[in-house]
Amino acid sequence: MKTRANGRIAAAASTILIALAPPAGAQTAASPVALQTPAMAGWIESWGTAQPLGPVPPPPAFARPAPSRNAAPTPPSPIVPVPPTLADQTVRMIVRASVGGPQVRLAFRNAAGGPTVTLGAIHAALAQPDGDISTASDRVVTFGGRRSVTMFPGATIVSDPIPLAVAPLADVAVSIHLPAATPTNTVHSLGLNPAYIAAGDQTAATTLTAPQSVRSYFWLSGLSVPAAAADAGTIVAFGDSITDGYATTPGAHRAWPELLAARLQAEGGGRLGVVNMGISGNRILKMGAGESALQRFDSDVLARPGVRWVLLLEGINDINMSIIPGVPASEGVTAAQIIAGLDQLITRAHQHGIRIAGATILPTKGLPFYSAAGEAMRGAVNAWIRGSGRFDAVVDFDAAVRDPADPLRLRPSFDPGDHVHPNDAGNTAMARAIPPTLFR
């Protein structure tokens, strides 16, 4: 009996090994065994983005008002519409690594839970201007040794290690081919960095033929690198449109999380990756533009590799959706509820050994629906952020960007005209407001 049982176990193990082995002819050069060493046992996130449940337009709370006669010109929306469906087309996305490494891994997510998504081919390479790639750096991306992959509804998939050396702050091109008609239901619309759509499978092309330019991330959710040292880690910037970089110059890398990444590199904190988990229109407590912060904390923070710190800037959308005329009363919340939501995010971060810094909510005087009630809510939440002692650190973004002559509004040189989203200069002030010793 014992011999037969052992035989059955051995046969079952053999069957499992056969099932997991890559198909004949599959690329195996990027396998974890071939590339990873004991010194590279852990991974940290170098770039990442949150994936809302489908394309998200600018939320009603921040519909840009007509500027006054003396106001600066209102910049155009940074969101470029994307096709509702892709069929036999290549998407090439450009992402900027915050920290470098000798190899990378990519993560994709079918967040919307719609139809399955098949990527027929995936390539990664160092990016060149105007959507070109460095041909010598082009690498085929595999998943379990296979060159194509299918994402089932709600699934996240992570690639094999890719033998592509990436320098800090380098641009990486990720090209995917959609062989079948596929709804674009998992898109980060406010990509800011360029992306390109072209006909057919052009994933390996040095120069795309007749590309359409957009600024979004399609299913791509992360790029990670091996942890170079014991103190390496990931910092997650977790927030709404202000963190997302809504009023910053597209392609200029002027959102405060990217400026923080560049600052860490310049000041010797080069082992820390910074990822932008901002979603325009996001709220702490309720769904709207994507899942609420409480709902998405698992996928956008806890599931990211190597997270050590969270920088949390949320709450202005909860306040504004509570005071905008015509919005259903069911969308409203109280300052006490916002504080309770923040407190829950702190507790959940601490459960996983992650430190969390709270950022104060920025002023919004000048909005058409600005009110004393909304200002009272903002003041109460900011007082709690500053004084409760619940956060591991406090970053006073409010103090960094408010107008000294009228602290209830943005400094005029930081206001692009919508009275909400700091411009490039305002984001620079926000990045500088983060204490340089915070992560040491």
From TrEMBL:
This is SGNH/GDSL hydrolase family protein. The lineage of its organism: Bacteria, Pseudomonadati, Pseudomonadota, Alphaproteobacteria, Sphingomonadales. PANTHER family: GDSL-LIKE LIPASE/ACYLHYDROLASE, PUTATIVE (AFU_ORTHOLOGUE AFUA_2G00820)-RELATED (PTHR43784), GDSL-LIKE LIPASE_ACYLHYDROLASE, PUTATIVE (AFU_ORTHOLOGUE AFUA_2G00820)-RELATED (PTHR43784:SF2). Residues 51-82, 408-440 are annotated as: Disordered. It holds the Pfam family Lipase_GDSL_2. Residues 73-82 have a biased composition (Pro residues). Residues 1-26 form the signal peptide. Residues 237-428 form the SGNH hydrolase-type esterase domain. Residues 63-72 have a biased composition (Low complexity). One of its GO terms (molecular function) is hydrolase activity. Keywords: Hydrolase, Signal.
